[in-house]
Amino acid sequence: MKTPILAMTLALLASLALADITPREVLSQAMSIERPVVAAARDHQGAFTVESGVEITTEGADEIVDLGSITKTVTAIATLHLIEEEGFSVQSTLATLLPDVPSDKAGITLHQLLTHSSGILESTGDDGEDLSRDEFLARIFAAPLDAAHGATYAYSNAGYSLLATVIEVQSGMAYEDYLIDRVIPQDNALIGYARAYDEDRALTSNRIWLTGFQRRPVAEASWQGAAPGWNLIGNGGLVTTAEGFLTFWAAFLNGEIVSADYVAAALTPHVDEGNGTLFAGYGLVVEPLADGNVLYWHDGGNDIFSAEWRHFAKTGDTYFTAGTGESAFDAMARVMAATSP
Q: Worst-scoring range by mean pLDDT, 13-27, 117-131, 251-265?
């Protein structure tokens, strides 16, 4: 067993080791995969570093990337904003927030949706399906639960689209409009769907069978249209720039979007994801490390694009990668290797 003094010394050395590596040096390792990827960092002082290995039509502009399931981080923050703004609770139930909720789902809470413990099925269909909100709700309400709500962790894309539905019904605004007009700080780059999209700045796919062996931009490749349907809204497919996401995350951590109590609630390891090492916070994974550090993160991908972010609690640094195929995951693996003490 380590003595308290030894444990403190090891933690300090680990912290100093991380501090000796600059974000630019870390990102140079991430970019060494030589694949289409954008890698960015924001340090604890707010300084940005961005490296890009992708080509877009508008030279010199910030690239627009597909966040994939990192959309869940954004939706969780938007949900907490709605809760605080409207005076709800994370324990508010679907029966109090949506009309005509069937009895087996009436007691599901926002907390359970946020932590993938609602028992809602994983998905209601293909991402590219042109599905309306009413059609999505009909499918959710008709489908049996995969588990009793609150009983176990089970990752659910549909559960996060249900949170987006709550946002729309309770705010009277479209999910994207609520996000952009009410949640995101005004000086932040847009995070959204059609309103945040610029095809001339968008990342384009590789030539793979999912895209008909053509290079296709995000909207066509991920949404299969000018805007996504409700199998995707709220759980995937949001677009922004690397700096846009990092700025948004920093604003959240700094209490600029919701109060400190809700920030702390989001970062709490609420539900064991199954192996005792990863835990569900609100829209993010909480990963305690052996050296006393804590990682907060989420990733996303659809085999066409990938994205990942990681925040180190000890140093306050946040890293973000996005690219084609699985390049974001490969780049983030190199970030993790470079930052390991």
A: 13-27
Tokens of 279: 């835990």
H or E element at residue 225: none
Q: pTM higher than 0.90, yes or no?
A: yes
Instruction: Mean pLDDT check: name the lowest of 9-13, 45-49, 95-99, 217-221.
Output: 9-13
Q: Which of 214, 243, 228, 212 is nearest to 64 (CA)?
A: 243
DSSP 290: T
Distant-in-sequence, close-in-space partners of 311: CB < 8 Å, separation ≥ 6: 249, 253, 295, 296, 297, 317, 318, 319
Distances (CA, A) of 57 to 63, 113, 202: 10, 39, 8
Q: Residue 262 is encoded by which pair of tokens?
A: 């809700």
Smallest Cα–Cα separation from 158: which of 253, 216, 72, 220? 72
CA nearest neighbour of 321 among 33, 83, 129, 92 = 33
pLDDT at 108 over 60: yes
- In the structure, what pLDDT confidence band is assigned to residue 239 with cuts at 50, 70 and 90? very high
Confidence of residue 60 (pLDDT cuts 50, 70, 90): confident
Count CB neighbours of 256 within 10 A: 12
Q: How many helices (H) and strands (E) does the chain have?
A: 12, 10
Terminal C-alpha separation, the chain: 20
> Do the beta carbons of residue 283 and residue 75 sit within 8 Å?
yes
DSSP string, 100-131: T--TTTTT-BHHHHHTT-S---S-SS-TT---
CB distance 164 to 75 below 8 Å: yes
